[in-house]
Design brief:
It is globular and about 45 Å long. The protein has one domain (8-142). It has helices at 8-15, 74-83, 88-115, 121-142, and strands spanning 27-29, 35-37, 58-63, 66-68. The longest helix is centred in the C-terminal third of the chain and has 28 residues, at 88-115. A hairpin with a 5-residue loop joins β1 (27-29) and β2. The chain has a two-stranded antiparallel ribbon with strand order 1-2. A two-stranded antiparallel sheet has the order 3-4. By secondary structure, the chain is mainly alpha-helical. It has four helices and four strands.
Length: 147
């Protein structure tokens, strides 16, 4: 048995990363049977694409039995926690903390990339939409029953 200190499903739900399938994840095997998640790669958000309807967008892998971003809420995270034998309250707290930290983190990253000379309207669009999405996800976690 191994423990992932940070699960990619949280991040992909928060950023609407719809292409996060199993082939985008890898495990690193270390000494004495240590196992850890390899650094993430091929991360992408559909948020900057106005042509994609988020009400119809689906994740590549289910969260608590649900693919559709709009349907995933508190009960799905609890179901996922039960399925993987994790503490549901800790999982929800971790996701809530991530969502709460996204607006400041995104603002910092946006300032850093712009200071490096990287400027494009997509950066601003993505930053704003990730901030909005994080707030929406926080609200969904605070609801007692979601579809």
């Amino acid at each position: 048995m191994f423990s992932l200190s940070w699960a990619p499903s949280h991040f992909n739900w928060l950023i609407a990363g719809t292409d996060a399938h199993a082939k985008n994840y890898a495990l690193l095997l270390g000494a004495q049977g240590a196992v850890r998640l390899a650094p993430f790669y091929d991360l992408a958000s559909v948020l900057p694409y106005r042509s994609i309807n988020l009400n119809k967008a689906k994740l590549a892998m289910k969260i608590g039995g649900e693919y559709r971003l709009r349907n995933i809420g508190l009960r799905h995270w609890h179901r996922l926690a039960a399925d993987v034998r994790a503490d549901g309250e800790s999982l929800i707290a971790r996701i809530s903390t991530m969502a709460a930290g996204f607006p400041d983190l995104i603002a910092t990253i946006q300032r850093e990339v712009e200071a490096e000379g990287l400027s494009h309207p997509t950066i601003s669009t993505l930053a704003q939409r990730i901030k909005s999405r994080a707030k929406l996800c926080q609200a969904r976690l605070e609801m007692t029953s979601v579809r």
